[in-house]
Amino acid sequence: MNPKRIRVMLVDDHHIVRAGLAALLNRQPDIEVVAEAEDGAQAVTLYKSARPDVVLMDARMPGMSGAETTTAIRKKFPDARVIILTTFDGADDIHRALQAGARGYLLKKMRGPDVIKAIREVYAGQRFIPQTVGSRMAERIPCSDLTHREMEVLKHLVKGLSNKEIAMAMNFTEHAAKAHLKNIMGKLGVEDRTKAVVVALQRGIVELE
Q1: pTM for the complete prediction?
Q2: Which of 13, 68, 175, 184 has the fewest CB neighbours in a 10 Å radius?
């Protein structure tokens, strides 16, 4: 039997961009493009029928933006894995995408191997946030020292573990996990888990394994 391929849906209002990405991705032995959408509304509809493993989505499109489309898809399919692909690297654009639940953020100037790597890592349950993107986010977020236990919790958070999974991994209650996460976010000066991960990776506090 052939190994399972990573099923990818492309969302971009430019046909030539979709065609170029499809040509790149379909050459990979472990990736196949199963659907293409030219706008957010079409993407939401196609996601239900195609059920891709990873969505590669443009940030700015007519009608619904990439962040709005990500929110709409994840409202119906919370486990959806979305990577935003854009020419914009402004902190606000990045913030909106990550707040919407995107697992990765790629700039269109990046090379093909970076796109492929991002898809594979996001499919594996990791986040893909290049240093340049993390730098933009970290510019507006302070950092502080963490205790040894908080560091361990943060490492699990970066791996994508839930509060319950972190509690099990560290042998304490889910309530304790929530308390540690609250302390971590307070020390990093962020309001949510996603920004905590961004800061941790960009500042080198922890690294993806």
Answers
A1: 0.65
A2: 175
